[in-house]
Design a protein that fits this description.
By secondary structure, this protein is an alpha+beta fold. It contains five helices and four strands.
Length: 146
Amino acid sequence: MRATGWNTNCSGFGDPKRSQFQEIQFSGGVLLDENVRRGVEATGARLSEELYPKQVSYSLSFEPETADIDAITEQWNRVAACIPDLGRPFVSQRNPWTDTAFVINALNIGLCADQLAPLPFATESAIQETMAMYNFSSRQEHRPLV
């Protein structure tokens, strides 16, 4: 999707209670029309949107019939083919909110702040903001956030 101009915010298994559930969240500064929605739904996927003051964010999701990587890849390819090409690849710009969200996710899976330093999204400001938000007492503290 990035090759066609869309910013993929996150993707993967979107629901811990349904182990095969697939989801990708993306944005691109373009509103998708009903034809796109109908095309996505024809693949067995769901398209939802969130409107923000300066952008719209979308979520594509589906639950594959089998936990087969080839079948899941094939369905993702059919879904992605419904999303219009914006005519240019997406070029990432650093987003402090996204950095903080990645730090929150990393801490939530059991990493401590000191383990995040080598990772590209773990800016010092994102680490400090997250530690303050969740009242971490040290950079070595391990605990789930939710």
